[in-house]
Specification:
By secondary structure, the chain is of the alpha+beta class. The chain contains 15 helices and 28 strands. Helix content is 34%, strand content 22%. The strands form ten sheets. A four-stranded mixed β-sheet has the order 3-4-2-6. A four-stranded mixed β-sheet has the order 19-18-21-26, covered by helices on one side. The longest helix is centred in the C-terminal third of the chain and has 56 residues.
């Protein structure tokens, strides 16, 4: 009997031990419920308790090894472990815990191994409701699903080249005179508890989320505005668009004038006044540093350099592009396509002189240094009341500057000289007008320290056809006078050339004569020249009569007389020495010679 009893006890113990054995399958979590016994004394743990009281245990059973629970007293439910997919965030809600205080909507963070230690959560003061801490994606968690529910929400993604704006839904209430919540370091809003513990305030945040990155942000704590959701009702009510969320790129040939929408009150509200520089805010990328250093609201002296991209908070700054390249401004009749040009308000210049309209074109090269751009925007910028910033390609300040400074100077100068000049004097003084106009423009820009590179003034053209024809006639007469003057000067030069040529010829003849005289003697040279002159006479080939008188009658009388005079003088002086003196012929010798003379008149004439 004793042996049977012992066997029954052993069988009962084996059955009891076997029934109490618990093996949790892989990828499962064991949730233990006690069926009988006293409840937990703390009323905060009515359904789930951190101890071994009746009800659901906060502690779970994990896979691997054996667990033993009292049979009948405990039951175990096997549930799948929680897997948070990649690209998602696990938003956790606690069904048991302390009641939240202070109007908070999120349960505070408790160290509980990412909600896998329910007992530590409850004993550590974990609160009911949505938790401030989230579960990272791409992992699995052994979570007590009776204590925690997990909702999968997408990670926050900010596309490249854009920024994400953050607005806190939880935190302290900011002062009414403060535009933004105070800045708290919280790992780009991924550490919600650090944000709340550090005194983070509700509303718009100064820090932004950079583009091209995913963020594990609790959507119950922060609203993030990106280009993907900017068209939603809440964002559109504020006037935000995709353009506001783009990174600000300052192209070559431009500078970015910064207008801060928050900061200390400006010390000087006068036109042209700008706020002084503030250090160490990384070109307005760290607005909380700017504000902490006493940065003033409004137009800043510091500008954004060209060729750089800036990720800036459009709730905090507005950037206006001002050209620093060389601008060519022209005064002429504008086409519709030129309405947006900086010189759109500079029309054709028409000067009325003595009742006649004279049109002229003007071109002015201008360059604005970056340090002048802020002052220009301050004096000629728009009065904007919008609380939004971002990149603003507003050409109004430059157009006003060109119109009110350069345009007014040019118009005033031509109006002044038109009252004191006649049409002809006005047209004749073109060079003086161009120089005086350049000086006026330089004077008007002295206070701006601008680079004025050149002024090109076109020709004045009459708009009246009658005056135009009169001026053309005057021009043709002037051209004709100039042509006659040139002809007269050419004739004078030709006379002078002829005079020099005559002198040259005289010197040449004199030299030749001198050489002949030295060689043959003056009388021989004289006789040779007389004979040469005689050979040039134009005489008839035949002279009737057979005597010398006919030949004499054929020669010009003045030349013959001169020839005879020279011969008589030579004979008188007996100066010819070209050969020996011949003896006087007798009468018979003379008759013989006369008989040898050719009776042919033509031959005699040639002789």
């Amino acid at each position: 009997m004793v042996i049977v009893l012992l066997l029954l006890i052993l069988l009962g113990a084996a059955w009891f031990g076997w029934k109490g054995r618990v093996v949790v399958p892989a990828d499962r979590v064991g949730i233990v419920t006690r069926q009988y016994g006293p409840t937990h004394p703390d009323t905060a743990f009515k359904q789930i308790n951190p101890a071994t009281a009746r009800g659901v245990y906060a502690r779970t059973l994990l896979p691997g090894g054996f667990h033993w629970l009292t049979p009948v007293l405990h039951t175990v439910e096997y549930v799948p472990r929680v897997h948070v997919p990649a690209g998602m965030v696990g938003l956790v809600s606690a069904t048991e815990g302390r009641t939240r205080t202070g109007g908070r909507t999120l349960g505070r963070h408790v160290e509980c191994n990412s909600f896998q230690d329910g007992q530590a959560f409850l004993l550590g003061g974990g609160e009911q409701g949505v938790q401030v801490t989230t579960l990272t994606g791409g992992q699995s968690y052994y979570v007590n699903t009776r204590l925690f529910s997990v909702e999968m929400v997408p990670r926050t993604y900010v596309p490249p080249g854009t920024v994400g704006l953050v607005q806190a839904r939880e935190g302290a209430v900011r002062p009414p005179d403060q535009r933004f919540g105070r800045h708290v370091e919280c790992n780009s809003f991924q550490d919600g508890q650090a944000f709340l513990s550090g005194g983070g305030e509700q509303g718009k945040q100064l820090a932004i989320l950079g583009g091209g990155t995913y963020y594990d942000i609790n959507p119950e704590l922060f609203d993030v505005v990106t280009v993907d959701n900017v068209d939603s009702a809440a964002a559109s009510r504020e006037g935000l668009t995709e353009a506001h969320l783009r990174e600000i790129a300052i192209n070559e040939g431009y500078t970015g004038v910064v207008v801060t929408l928050d900061g200390a009150e400006p010390l000087d509200d006068a036109a042209g006044a700008v706020a002084s520089r503030v250090a160490k805010h990384s070109s307005f990328r760290l607005p909380w540093v700017f504000l902490a250093s006493g940065g003033q609201r409004g137009i800043q002296e510091e500008t954004l350099g060209q060729g750089t991209t800036y990720a800036l908070n459009p709730w905090f700054v507005r950037v206006m592009l001002i050209p620093t390249r060389v601008l060519i401004l022209t005064w002429h009749n504008k086409e519709d396509s030129e309405a947006d040009n900086y010189d759109a308000d500079l029309g054709q210049i028409v000067v009325n002189v003595q009742g006649f309209d004279l049109a002229v074109t003007l071109s002015q090269n201008l360059q604005i240094p970056p340090h002048v751009a802020s002052q220009l925007v301050s004096q000629f910028g728009n009065e904007r009341t919008s609380g939004l910033g971002g990149l603003v390609d507003d050409r109004a300040p430059m157009k006003r500057f060109v119109r009110d400074v350069l345009g007014a100077t040019v118009a005033g100068y031509f109006a002044e000289i038109a009252m004191t000049s006649s049409v002809l004097d006005f047209l004749a003084s073109y060079q003086d007008v161009r120089k005086e106009l350049t000086d006026r423009l330089l004077h008007s820009l002295e206070g701006w320290q601008l680079g004025m590179l050149g002024t090109v003034l076109g020709r004045f053209t009459p708009t009246d056809p009658v005056l135009h024809e009169r001026l053309k006639e005057k021009f043709f007469e002037e051209m004709r006078g100039e042509s006659l003057g040139v002809s007269l000067e050419n004739a004078r030069l030709e006379d002078l050339i002829d005079e020099y040529r005559a002198r040259q010829e005289s010197r040449r003849v004199a030299l030749e004569l001198k050489a002949e005289v030295e060689l043959m003697g003056p009388d021989n040279v004289s006789m040779i020249r007389i004979v040469r002159e005689f050979a040039k006479f134009d005489v008839p080939e035949y002279i009737g009569g057979g005597d010398i008188s006919a030949l004499v009658q054929a020669l010009p009388m003045s030349t013959m007389q001169d020839l005879l005079t020279r011969l008589r003088d030579l004979r008188r002086d007996q100066q010819i020495t070209s050969g020996p003196t011949r003896p006087e012929l007798t009468k018979d010798e003379a008759d013989t010679i006369d008989g040898d003379i050719d009776p042919d008149p033509s031959t005699a004439a040639q002789t």
